[in-house]
Amino acid sequence: MAKTTPRHPGYVRDRMKALAASGELNARNADRHWLYEESVQNVDRELEFIDRVFKRHYGRKPTFVREDFCGTALLCAKWVAHRRGNTALGVDFDGPTLDWGRANNVAPLGDRAGRVTLMEDDVRNVTSPLCDVLAATNFSWWGFKTRAALGAYFRNCHASLRQEGLLMLDCFGGPEAQVAQEEERSLEGFDYIWDQDGYNPITGETRCHIHFDFPDGKRLKRAFSYDWRIWTLAETHDLLLESGFSAVDVYWEGTNRGGEPNGIYRISVKGDSAPAWVAYLIARR
Ligand SMILES: C[S@@+](CC[C@H](N)C(=O)[O-])C[C@H]1O[C@@H](n2cnc3c(N)ncnc32)[C@H](O)[C@@H]1O
To answer: Whose CA is nearest to atom 14 of ligand 1?
Structure first.
């Protein structure tokens, strides 16, 4: 991967977009964090979801969001840009990734950059300041593979929330989550490949990778790798209640008339038999 030195806030993003549009992006000049944000994250939808769900429970909009496993802190930055008065705390133990986020997501906020705080630490070590919403997305909490480890994390989340506070987690599943397979999606200037490398039915562990393919036929192999346990919604629901949360809802994705997922998540106790699904868990303090 080519080294990119930010010359102005947003420089990397602008450069990557230009390379992608001209078909010149390749495994050497592409920035892996930009590729990740473009292909994996859908933060705008998550901001709307956070506002809607918080208002449903507490009749007002939240102001302070903490993003655990924040990586490049895209959610933090977009949260602060989303509404005047919003503040965000991002926590991640990877210093270089946080630095990338500071340069490419936080600095472009200009006047509002000071409303984002990034902490380089293990998410289990941080309990203050108390937040309205604690979001742990893109399945990063699956790195905790035992009930003891995940329970300790959930208790820490509970202790990190204000009295009116929500924990938001995402989860995926369905029969296709348990098979070795590659799923490919084309974006402008590159292809994204989600590689489920293996699943252990005894421990529930899975290894997954993200690769990126480019117009010149070359691949950026294993740009990101994950070593997770696939937790089911039911066992996570129970563990959240055991960890002190007062109520837990599952938000299941709706479908359009053709039966395709529509990106709108609503409380459900039924789900459906989709071969692969993503759902959100919302736990109330
Ligand atoms: C899949 S990325 C998530 C990025 C972003 N939050 C998202 O939603 O796409 C996972 C991040 O979690 C961080 N991470 C994993 N375990 C952690 C822990 N115990 N404490 C802090 N950060 C952790 C890694 O450094 C990495 O940046």
So the answer is: 69
Protein residue with its CA nearest to atom 18 in ligand 1: 122
Give, in order, the Cα–Cα distances in Å from 213 to each of 9, 25, 185, 186, 271.
27, 10, 10, 9, 34
Name the residue of 41, 49, 92 whose CB sits within 8 Å of the most ligand 1 atoms, as the mutation to test its pocket: 92
In the chain the domains, ranked by start, together with CATH numbers, are 63-171+235-284 (3.40.50.150)
* Residue 138 in contact with ligand 1 by CB distance below 6 A: yes
Separation in Å, CA 169 to CA 107, 186, 222, 223, 282: 27, 27, 25, 24, 7
pTM here is: 0.94
Omega into 129 within 30° of 0, i.e. cis?
A: yes
Question: Which tens digits make up the pLDDT trace of 180-206?
Answer: 999 999 999 999 999 999 899 999 999
pLDDT digits over 150-181, tens only?
A: 999 999 999 999 999 999 999 999 999 999 99
